[in-house]
Amino acid sequence: MAVAVASGSACLSTLGVPSPGPVLLYAAEDSQSTLRLRLESLTHHHALQLRHLDIRVIIADSLRLDRIPDQERLEATLLLHRLALLILDPLVRLHAIDENAAGEIAALLGYPRLLQRKTGAAIALVHHARKNVAANGGAGYSLRGSSDLYANGTPGPAGTTKPADEKFLEDLVASRPDLLGIGGWDDETDIEGPFHAFRQLSLHALNGRSIAPDLVLLSRSGHIVVVEVKLSDNPELRDRQVVAQLLEYAASFAQYTEDECLALFGGKACGVATWAAFVQTLFPEASERLAHRFLDKLRTGKLHLIIACDEAPRGLRELVRGVVGQHALGEYEFRVVEIAPYVTGTLSTEVIFLPPRLSTD
Fold it and tell me: Which option is the CATH number for 166-254+301-360: 3.40.50.170, 3.30.365.10, 3.30.420.380, 3.40.1350.10?
């Protein structure tokens, strides 16, 4: 929404922006670096450059709509910058009241309405949906907390952010690696495509068990990306087991010889005699050094490990950051990427995949 209003491009590739202008954004749950990566991803998706867009960010540690000093500062900021749009995300981080208390919610939401009238800026409050909603429930029942949250707002288009199953998300990532936030545009990495995706490679773990990463991507730039795909309702994502899975994949790759790598990636089945010749079939214009670089990455554990999910549970990013800090475990990069499909309302069956929300280290 921020990129759409600042640039005048269609929001979600569907909703027109008749009056573009400056945008002020407060993302309470994202670090500055993570927020910048998300904005760069979105501008890249729209073939734009972030530095050309008038998107301003509130970097205060906290912003509370139920505190008079914060209300006064926010109003002064909007009057000074003469904004087209203010985005506050998420509502749960902007107050300390009981969301189930209708009176408290009504009082809280009275302030944004007054602020909108005083400043002329549109105000978007992002609020979480309930985890489990009855299929026959009305639109207001999908929001967490008091129904006043729905009654006091102007709801956006109805949609869902739940892929059909993990295979659907896996197929999507295999065909569109750019949804992982990789591919050369990211300032934090020099990964460049094209990519070749290998699915469910049968690895032998250090203890002899058979394990299979969902996706392994070989890139033209010589990087190896290992992806584990999980939906938010998968217990392996909620109990953080997915982190251990990816670390086990990295350790298992390190024990493979050149000949074993050739068999693992399917080169022998294709009648190719050497690892170098196999890599040449994948990237015909590359030099033989690319094959050696892949082997070096596998043996030293210099891999890019990615958890791709529709919604990351609370604490997962912090866990990943903590694991990455333990350098004895390897020299990999580890990131969590959220890929959210947005299904437009009842008048359309179009599915739009939002660029990733990611955390990198």
Answer: 3.40.1350.10
